[in-house]
């Protein structure tokens, strides 16, 4: 299983780098639309939407994402920024307030379309963040995503080697506090290494703040991972799909990104408004 996961992850990462640095703006937008579409297909199953209802859901999701992409061509810069800000604020409210309460209380919503609306707040800001961060700098998007990847890798191996104390056994029995600590250590090393190697410290001597931001990133990634696990448990499935060998569905691969990318994007958007 580990070998298959590594092979799939390696291929995906190479393809991602090629797309990130090689695709024109339109090509990247089409790729993001495809990611949101596939994620919506998988979310519709987790939400309990079947048959025609599932088709309607992912078509609406795709139309909403495509509509926002097209609006960006017709809106003034400030109007575009404000529209994106609304979605990012919804995402921040979801991840900071709603999801933690959801996980603590063990909520199990039975209304499929209510879960569908939650899916929009999860998926659409993630798609917008992929567009905004890449438009600002492909390197910025790469860094934000690789911090999450480093947290995931570190948590996996630390959990396998030292994991004894379960993080949330009722939601995801495989996750441990030792894995979280490993993720924080791994991210700290990675962030500090990038901070020094990039020369960022010469202009912005703010290492403690960068490290704390990395820890915050780990916390957000864990919340995103646990939330998808809770939704899958409610749906009675192990994986969100079978698209990626060794990983499951696309949502299984990007769950931690849905809870982190909008936070990076909202900081970027707020800087534009200053």
Automatic annotation (TrEMBL):
Subcellular location: Cell membrane
Pfam family of the protein (one): CTP_transf_1
EC number: 2.7.7.41
InterPro entries attached to this UniProt entry: PC_trans (IPR000374)
Keywords: Cell membrane, Lipid biosynthesis, Lipid metabolism, Membrane, Nucleotidyltransferase, Phospholipid biosynthesis, Phospholipid metabolism, Transferase, Transmembrane, Transmembrane helix
Catalytic activity: a 1,2-diacyl-sn-glycero-3-phosphate + CTP + H(+) = a CDP-1,2-diacyl-sn-glycerol + diphosphate
Molecular function terms, GO-annotated: phosphatidate cytidylyltransferase activity
Record-level GO cellular component terms: plasma membrane
Membrane-crossing segments per the record: 6-36, 56-76, 82-105, 137-158, 179-198, 204-223
Source organism, top-level taxon: Bacteria
Coiled-coil features, chain-numbered ranges: none
Pathway this chain belongs to: Lipid metabolism; Phospholipid metabolism; CDP-diacylglycerol biosynthesis; CDP-diacylglycerol from sn-glycerol 3-phosphate: step 3/3
Main localization (coarse): membrane
Enzyme superclass (EC): transferase
Signal peptide as annotated in the record: none
Membrane topology field: Multi-pass membrane protein
Matching PROSITE patterns: CDS
One annotated GO biological process: CDP-diacylglycerol biosynthetic process
Homology family: Belongs to the CDS family.
Protein name per the record: Phosphatidate cytidylyltransferase
Organism in which the protein naturally occurs: Sideroxydans lithotrophicus (strain ES-1)
Lineage: Bacteria, Pseudomonadati, Pseudomonadota, Betaproteobacteria, Nitrosomonadales
